[in-house]
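Re: beginner question about structure tokens

> Can someone show what the tokenized structure looks like for a real chain? I only ever see the sequence side.

Sure, here's an example I had lying around. Input first:
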Amino acid sequence: MTGIITATGNVRIVYPDQRVVATSRQAQYFTREGMIILSGDVDVVQEDGNLLRADRVTYLVERERALAQPLEGQQVFSKLLIQTAPQVPPPSAPVQPLIAPPR
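And the corresponding structure tokens:
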């Protein structure tokens, strides 16, 4: 056995735990390396609206790292929605007088 699983055509991979759906023309899963290579019109969409478009995406499963590559002469497209925490002012410290009041 080669340890490589290949899917071609209209490939759709769903990662429910990560809330991610990836589509491509081909996907190869290298079981020994723990690596997935998506190629051909790759779209990776997260439920929160983040999006990655490339010609080829290599995903290292255990490290949770992705490398996106465009077609020659083109660019990778990414849309990242950054969630910011509401700004909470720090609690007020009691004001200490600089000069002690007369007694």
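Each token stands for a local structural state, so reading them left to right follows the chain. The first strand starts at residue 4 and ends at 15.
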